[in-house]
Amino acid sequence: MIERLNKKIQECKYNTARKKFMNLWIPNLGTIKEEENKIICYVRQELLERYMKRKGYTISCYGIPMHEKVKQKVEYYQLDKPVYYIFDGIQFDFISFSSIFNCILVFKSCSFNNKLNFICADKVVLENNTYNSWINKYNRDGSFLRGEIKELILQNDNLINHFKGVDNNQDFGIDIITDRLTIMNSTIAALNEGQIYIKAKEAKFMDSTLEATEMYLDLDNIAYANSLLKSSQGIMIENKSWNCDLDMGFYNVDSPYVVYNGIEIIGLSRN
Fold first, then answer.
1. What is the dihedral angle through the alpha carbons of 40, 46, 51, 52, rounded to the nearest 10 degrees?
2. pLDDT tens digits for range 107-123
3. What is the average pLDDT value for the chain, to the nearest integer?
């Protein structure tokens, strides 16, 4: 009986220390649930607003690090697993996110009322969100969606900028640098003098539309299916692997001017 009691005390101490260690890294943004192969933080609006009042408009989301200083503890507490932050139905104004240490940010059915910026994020999923864009004193220049993200997935998402800039220096659109980009069943439309700039090592466009006044795509590898690239002024594509040929990659392109790896193609409209 004493042995059993000691075992329960040790388990209680272990679980308390484990939770305390986990809370060192995961901010208090919502309800945390743990599964066998991942940790999930279901973000709550009121806790997010409380966080921003204390720390400003950059939300820092952490996973569990595995560097040498903490690796032994992480393994001891069996916390070597990815952390998912689920933002479901959250309303945002101007906001920035950063994430490190095997961390995935998932935005579902959220409303973004101003610019959305990612600072060195690991993985981001955007799904079925609403992007409300207008001109005010806080939103006069720069892209609506921008940042550096290791992996970005847009699925069933529609990011459309309707507003018109008030001068020629404004760039309302997207500006993304990423290792892996996947756009599925989605529309990105940077209208009214807007630009789309995407730099990616791997890019997949599937059943999607990208539309802008000007478009710049710097993509090492392209996978392209049932999608449309449309521009009123021109599209420039850099493709290191040369795997986007005229018969396949440009099957659905509508633009008066296209440059592909330095080759000028005038008046391409084959959608």
1. 120
2. 999 998 878 899 999 99
3. 85
Q: What is the pLDDT of residue 173?
A: 79
**Closest to 196 measured CA to CA, from 231, 238, 150, 242:** 231
Bridge partners, 108 (sequence order)? 88, 127
Flag whether pLDDT at 135 surpasses 60. Answer: no
Q: Are 237 and 259 contacting, i.e. CB atoms less than 8 angstroms apart? A: yes
CA angle, residues 79, 40, 125, in degrees to nearest 5: 115
**Would you say the pTM of this structure is higher than 0.85?**
yes
From CA 230, how far away is CA 255, in angstroms rounded?
A: 6
In sequence order, the β-bridge partners of residue 189 are: 160, 211
Closest by CA to 107, choosing from 140, 77, 145, 136, is 145
